[in-house]
Specification:
Layout (H helix, E strand, L loop, with lengths): L1 E7 L5 H15 L4 E6 L12 H15 L4 E11 L2 H13 L4 E6 L7 H6 L2 E4 L7 H20 L6
Parallel strand pairs: 1-2, 1-4, 3-4, 3-5
Helix pairs in contact: 1-5, 3-5
Amino acid sequence: MNLAIIAVGKLRESYYRAGVEDYLSRIQKMLPIEQIEVPVGTGEESNGGGKGALIREAANIERALEKGGKIVVLDSHGKSLTSEEFSAWIQDQMLASVSRIAFVIGGAWGLSAKLQDRADLKLSLSTLTFPHELARLVLAEQIYRALSLWKGLPYHK
């Protein structure tokens, strides 16, 4: 199985980049993972409350999703899982021979309704609102924790 983190925008702050890269390198030792950054939508944000940006971001995300597999969108109103439950969910996907899990993090305008409807799982990292860069770091850490539980590594205490 392959994993992908698809996120709107780049990690601007060096400390977020360093943290995400650290976790991705750890994950890579257990499962292949890629990070796909799609451009932030621009131009029509001032007209229509970001609808134009949301449409452009959704189109870019859709192109990154064309490889198939399961889609997990991050949404503060999504399902809350413990680390153990998240690990079990990933393991269930492996047992079901899912080829890819794509985790999708939207931009400032969120994710389009079409993308949310397409999701196999709407996952909440917290009911708190995080900056998108921090959400990506927390997601990478939780993926690593889930795989550590699967492998029986002492990381999760």
